[in-house]
Specification:
This protein is of the alpha+beta class. The chain folds into two domains: 149 residues, 3-Layer(aba) Sandwich (Aminopeptidase), CATH 3.40.630.30; 162 residues, 3-Layer(aba) Sandwich (Aminopeptidase). It contains eleven helices and 13 strands. The strands form two sheets. A seven-stranded mixed sheet has the order 1-2-3-4-5-13-6, sandwiched between helices. It has a six-stranded mixed sheet with strand order 7-12-11-10-9-8, with helices on both faces. Strand 11, helix 10 and strand 12 form a beta-alpha-beta unit. Helix 6 crosses helix 10 and helix 7 crosses helix 9. The chain starts with 7 loop residues before the first strand and ends in a 7-residue tail after the last strand. The mean pLDDT is 95.
Length: 335
């Protein structure tokens, strides 16, 4: 208990934290798939070896102020997960509780055995970026905020033609031309897989197309990451969140895109294509068709997620910044 502030920090287990975590997330303006217990606990199952989970809930009486999902490795304290599998991180704080949560968090942090606190992938506008630096400096900790990456996205209009009109003239022409070139050919068609009972086999083809498209993606797809994707993918499909898109041409699956539909937004998580069909722009066309499908489903926002690849802006994405916040305690005084 923090007597001066009358806040209570509760060290939780995975089992005990789920209820307050889900309650806080449901009322948080920063709610995103990457902050769900499902995503983070699955990550922990596959990548948590050698780390100590520090899961805290914060309360003012019976009022939930928020949840801090952290882990300790050596003397470094951080969010669960890294940028390879998490596009966004943050604390889970209900709207309006920020002014109470962050002082309680800093009070709890002061009693934990860390030297560096590394908070990755905080979105532009995150309350952590506003509240933590001045509170940390009051404790005598140094604070550094750095721009980490961008995560382009865009609000979706009510219809496809309105989306096209919003594009740059050249980009609008290219999107229309490339889609027309493929879709007017009866050899091409697009469809989505969302049945958890059949997803496993289709994930094999998705991974193959990822590996074919870029050497970097081939290196990224380690057996450990594949196992994570399979487990979390089936769980998300069971909840109606996952949609795995394929573009077929002449009976061959030539491009694929893994999307998550979460709280009115479509997240384009990853994609791949067969370079032998690159002259048909199959990767770009499929991504455009996932935007069209999102509009037709009435979704409000399309999130290209982390990375400033050119195609995201050609398809209408607007840049949003991600930040890294690092706190450091001073070295202990000798003697």
């Amino acid at each position: 208990m923090c007597q001066a502030l009358a806040y209570q920090a509760v060290r939780e287990t995975w089992a005990s934290v789920l209820r307050p975590w889900e309650d806080a997330l449901a009322h948080s303006p920063g709610d995103t798939l990457f902050l769900t217990p499902l995503w983070q606990q699955t990550w922990w199952k596959h990548f948590g070896v050698g780390k100590q989970p520090l899961l805290y809930s914060f309360w003012a009486g019976v009022r939930l102020l928020g949840v801090a999902p952290l882990c300790l490795e050596g003397d470094t304290l951080a969010f669960l997960g890294e940028t390879d599998l998490f596009d966004y991180h943050d604390f889970i704080v209900p709207r309006g509780e920020e002014g109470a949560f962050y002082p309680a968090l800093v009070h709890a942090l002061a009693g934990l055995p860390w030297r560096t606190l590394r908070l990755l992938s905080l979105r532009e506008g995150s309350p952590a970026l506003e509240h933590l630096p001045p509170l940390a400096r009051q404790q005598g900790w140094t604070c550094q905020v750095e721009e980490e990456d961008v995560a382009p996205g865009m609000p979706l209009p009510g219809d496809w033609e309105a989306y096209l009109r919003a594009l740059d003239r050249h980009d609008r022409h290219e999107v229309r031309r490339k889609i027309r070139r493929l879709t007017q050919d009866t050899l091409a068609h697009c469809y989505a897989i969302d049945d958890p009972n059949t997803l496993w086999g289709f994930l094999d083809e998705f991974f193959t197309l990822m590996r074919q498209s870029m050497e970097e993606k081939s290196r990224f797809l380690t057996p450990q990451r594949e196992a994570f994707f399979r487990e979390v993918g089936v769980a998300l499909a069971e909840r109606g969140i996952l949609r795995l898109y394929f573009l077929e041409y002449a009976g061959h699956r030539v491009a694929s895109a893994l999307c998550f539909d979460y709280k009115g937004q479509r997240l384009l998580y990853n994609s791949g294509f067969n370079p032998a069909y690159g002259h048909l722009s199959v990767g770009l066309v499929l991504k455009a068709l996932t935007i069209k499908d999102a509009i037709e489903r009435g979704l409000a926002y399309y999130d290209f997620l982390r990375g400033g690849e050119e195609y995201k802006f050609r398809l209408g994405g607007r840049s949003r910044r991600l930040f890294r916040l690092t706190l450091r305690r001073p070295d202990p005084t000798p003697g």
